[in-house]
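Recap for those who missed Tuesday's class. We walked through two folding examples back to back. For each one, the amino acid string is listed first and its predicted C-alpha cells come directly after. Nothing is annotated here on purpose, so try labeling regions yourself before you check the end of the notes.
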Amino acid sequence: MDNIKRLILEWQGEILKTKGIKRNQENLIFNSLGAKPIKVITGFRRSGKSFLVRQIARRAVEAGKYKLTNILFLNFEDYELDVHEAKELSRVYNIFKSSISEIKEKKLLIFDEIQLVKNWDKFLRTIYEKESDIEIIITGSNSQLLSSEIGSNLAGRFINFFILPFGFVEFLKYKHSMPESISAYYQNKAEIDYLFNEFVSFGGLPEVFSINIKETKLSYIDGILNKVILDDVIKRFALENVEAFELLTKYILATAANQISFAKVANHFNSSGRKIKASTLIKYSQYLVKAFAIFEVNKFDWKQSKYFSQSRKFFAVDTGLLTLFRAERENYSFRIENLVYLELLRRNKDIAYGMNQQGKEIDFIVKDKFNDKISEKIQVCLELNNNNFNREI
C-alpha cells in the first residue's frame, strides 16, 4: 500500500513539472473536460500521448477544474506499477480514493497505455456506471482501444482523439524557430529550410529532437518500429510467418506514396521461394494499420463518387520510418507527399487519390467529412517549372 501511495504522489508531482509546447489537439481535448464520456487518446508509440495527457492535467489544475490531490495518473509501462489485471487496478484505485483524494471533490483518472491491463474495459465500465464524481482519460498505442470488444463494452461511453507525431509547425515551436510573420520567415529562411530537411528525414517523434547524431536518430526510430512489430503485431496477432511480415513492412515503408498491387508483391515472394498468398499480405498490411504505423488510402471512384479498395496506397505515420529503408534524398518527392497526407489527416480530412483510365493521377482528392463535396484537389511536386507544368496541372 505504501509503495502504491508513493507512486501516485510521485506522478502527481510530475504533472506539475510537465510543460511543453501546445499540441495540435490539446485545446480540443482540454475543452472536452467536464463531459461525461471517457476520453480515449490513441496513436503511434512514442508520439507524445503520455506527455500530452500530463500537460492537460496540469492545465486542469491551473484552471481550477481539479485539485492535484484528486488526479490519479497511472502509467502501466512503469515497471514499479505491477498491475496486470482489472482486480489489481481496482485495488490501486481504492487506495487512491481512501488515502489520497478528497472524497467529496470530483476526480480525474488518467490511465496511460491501459491496454496492458487485462479486462481494463470491464473495470472502466463498472466505475463509469457506478460513480458520478469521476472523469476518465485513457491512452493506448494500438487499435485494441477501438476494437469490436470496446465497441460493445463501452459503446456510447467514449470520445476518441487520435494523436499523430509532431507536425512541422509543432516542430518549429519546439525548436523556438516558429516565425511570427512573413518577414520573419524570410529573415530566417536558411535556418527554417535546414530544419525542414531535418524534419523530412527524421520525422516528428518528439524524443528524436534531442538526438544530435544521425545514426543514433535512426537507431532510436528503428527500435520503436521493432517494438511495434514485436508487441503490437507479432505477439498480439500470433503471427507464424514472421519473416514475410517483416519483409512486407520494409517494402511498404520503402515504397510509401506509391500504388501497391498485392498480387505482384505475392508473385515476387513466390518467385524467391517464399510461398504466400496475396490475401495473406493484405491481412498483414492491415495489422500495420491497426498498430498505427501506416495509413491506407484508397482510389477515388470518379463515376460513382465513392471509394473502392482494389487499388491502394500506404503512407507512414512518420517520415522518419521511411529513412530506415531509403537514403535521405532518395524518393524525396514521395516523402513530401507523405508529409502533405499527414497534414491533411491533422485537419480531419477525408482523403483519397485519383487516377483516370489513361493513368493520369491526382495525388490527393480531399472531401470534408461532414458533407459529400470535394473541397480540394492537391498535386505534390518538389518544384513547378516549364518542364513539368503541363504534366502536374
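Example two. Treat it independently of the first, because the proteins are unrelated.
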Amino acid sequence: MTTRPLLTVIVPAYNALKTVRACLEGITTSDLSRERFELILVDDGSTDETSLIAAEYCDRVMRLSGKAHGPAFARNRGAEVSRGEVLVFVDADVIVHSDALRRLAVRFEAEPESSAIFGSYDDRPASPGLVSQYRNLLHHYVHQRGRGVAQTFWAGLGAIRRSEFLSAGGFDEWHYASPQIEDIELGRRVHLAGRRIMLDPDILGTHLKKWTLGSTLLADFRHRGVPWMWLILQEGAPAKSGSLNVRAFEKVLTGLAGVALLMPWVALFTKHAQWLLVSVAIAVLIGLANTRFYVFLLRARGPLFAMSVVPLHLAYYAGNSVSVIIGWFVHHLFGEPIPPAESAAHAQIGIATWPPPPRRSQQSLWEQRRPGDQ
C-alpha cells in the first residue's frame, strides 16, 4: 500500500526550458524527506522540451495540448490528480530554498487552524539587471514586512490544504486565462470564507525571472493593476476598508501619483507652468514616504543602486494610478466578466500524463465547480 504524501508540489510551466531544471532540482533536493511529497509538473502546451526535462524529476508530468490556457487552468489540473493533503504551488521560475518544503510541512502539521501559507522571494534575484533587481527586491521587502495573517494568497511559493482548495472552487480559470491575479482572487475567497491565511517570510525562493522596463509596465498595468482594481470594485463597499491587502498608505500614494500625472496637463491648458511644481512636490513627498524602502535598498545594494531605483519606483506609483482609472472605467463599462455557459475548453483539451494517473473515485475539481457557479 502506497503511503499518501503530506504535500503535493504542483509546478505550472509554459516554455520554461531556461528555468525548469533549476526549479525542479531545488524541489527534489529539499531537506524534507522525499516520501513526504510528490511532484507534479503541468505543461501548459509548451513547444519546447519542458516536459522532457520534467520527466527526469517528477512523479507525474501532465501535458496539456493546444494553446496555453494559463497557470490557473494548469494548477487546477494538477490539483485534480494530486494525492497530498496540502497543495504546494511553485512557479517554474522559482528555486525554493532547501528548507522551504520542510517549513511548510511543519507549520501545516502544527497549525490545523491555518488553511493556507505562503512565503516570499529572497533578496538574491538571479538576473543582475537594474529592473529585475528592483522588482524582486520590492516584492521581498513587502513580504518581509507582512508577516502574519493575510487576506490574499501568493502562488509563486504558496500552499493550501487540498480540502480548502476544493471547497473554494480552485483557481478562477475562466476569468484569468493568463498570469494575472488568480492567486490573489483565490486567497480573497478563502479569506471571506473565514479561513486563515498566513504569510511566513522565512519560507523563501530565488526568483529567476528577467524583468525589463516594458515587461514591468505591462505587468503592473495589464496583468495586475487593472485586474486588481476591477476585483476591488466588484467587491463593493467592503473593499473600502482595506481589503485585498491594499494598505491605506499605498492608496494615498497612488492617488497622489495620479494628481502628479494630471498637473502637466493642467499647466498645458492653463498656460501656468507653476502647476508643474505640484508634480515635483508630490514626487518628493512619495520619495520621502518610502524612505524605509530606500534605506533597505541602500543596505542591500549600495547608494548608487538606491538612487537609480527612485525613478522606477515613481513610475510604479504612476502606473498604479493609471491602472486605478482604467480599472474604474472597465468596471463601469463592462461590469463583471461573464464566463462561458459551458466549459467546452476542458472537454476538448487533450491531457497526456506520465505516468498515467490512477483511477479516481472522488468527484473531480471540474465537476465540483462549473462555470457560473457561485
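Answers for example two:
Residues 77 and 171 are 10 Å apart (CA to CA).
Confidence is low (pLDDT under 50) at residues 237-245, 340-349, 356-374.
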